[in-house]
Each structure stands twice: as C-alpha cells, then as structure tokens.
Design a protein that fits this description.
By secondary structure, this protein is mainly alpha-helical. It is built from six helices and three strands. It has a three-stranded antiparallel β-sheet, with no helix packed on it. Bound molecules: zinc ion (ZN). Zinc ion (ZN) binds next to loops.
C-alpha cells in the first residue's frame, strides 16, 4: 500500500481529516498495514461494501460487518471519525500538550464533548490527564515519571495505542 501522508500542523490536520477519503486511507494504513482484517476472527478474506462504507467478513460468525470504527476507542461514539482523528492527532502530536479548550475550538464542539474526547484519547494512549495535576501537587514526581514511562512505551509500539485495541 502506498504511504499515506501525515499532517504536519494542526491546521493541516483539520483540513486533511475533513475529507472522508483521507480519514479512510489514514486509518486503513495505520490499523491494517498488512491488509484489512476482520476484527472478530482476524481473517483477511473480507469484502468492502462501498455503499455502506463497511467491510464484511466471508467467514460465518456474528458481527461479520465492520467499519473503520469497529473495535476502536471510537466505536460507540456518535461523533464522526473526522473529529476523532483531528482530536487524536492534536493530543498525540502537540508536544507542549493540547487542552480540551483547543480541541473544542478546533472542532467547533462543546467543551464538555472536547473534554470527553481528550480524556478517552489520553486513556487509550496511557497518558495522564493534565486535569489530575490539580490537587496532586505533592505527586508531581510520580506524575512526570508515569508520563515519561508511558510516552516511551507509546513511541516503541505505536500500533498498540492508536486504536486502544478492544479485542
Ligand atoms: Zn471474521
């Protein structure tokens, strides 16, 4: 599969993920670098149903149809994949940290929704939420240590964290 472009700035990420085809290619290339697999049985014998934007596994079992969201941290969310991908990109790529306020402004969603997205993304990546800093001043060292360890783990095996596997 050809390499899929990685946005290089928040503005670029917003524009890039506004195109459903880009969202599709981006997730497929990262989630299934060796070809699309059924999240239920792991088989690669799947058919893409273009009109439903879903795949169907050829094996006989329940939950044969799956989408880009199936089996990911985005699965049960009514929010579009485009918004989730922008928020995830911001949380993961903004080195100085991104606040839920920034997500809220970038995506034009409520602050409460932005906080929820931010929280879920951080949990899936094993990142501490900045909210935990308040009231835990004495645990500063623990927080930093924990975060550093998790960031290291994330860098070493990004495929384990992108989609918060729920198999
Ligand atoms: Zn299957």
């Amino acid at each position: 599969m050809e390499a899929v472009k990685e946005p290089s700035s928040p503005q670029e990420a917003i524009l890039y993920f506004a195109d459903p085809k880009n969202c599709h290619d981006y997730v497929v290339s990262r989630r299934w670098p060796n070809g699309v697999e059924c999240p239920s049985c792991g088989c690669k014998d799947v058919v893409f149903l273009a009109n439903q934007n879903r795949w169907q596994c050829r094996n006989k079992h329940s939950r044969r149809q799956f989408s880009l969201k199936t089996g990911t941290i985005y699965e049960d969310s009514p929010l579009g994949l485009d918004k989730w991908l922008v928020a995830t990109w911001l949380v993961v790529n903004c080195k100085n940290g991104v606040s839920s306020c920034e997500i809220h402004r970038a995506l034009n969603i409520t602050q409460k929704t932005a906080w929820f997205m931010d929280h879920r993304i951080r949990v899936s990546f094993g990142m501490e939420s900045p909210d935990k800093l308040t009231g835990h001043v004495e645990a500063d060292e623990t927080f930093i240590g924990q975060k550093a360890r998790n960031m290291h783990r994330f860098r070493s095996r990004p495929e384990d964290h992108w989609y918060g596997r729920q198999r």
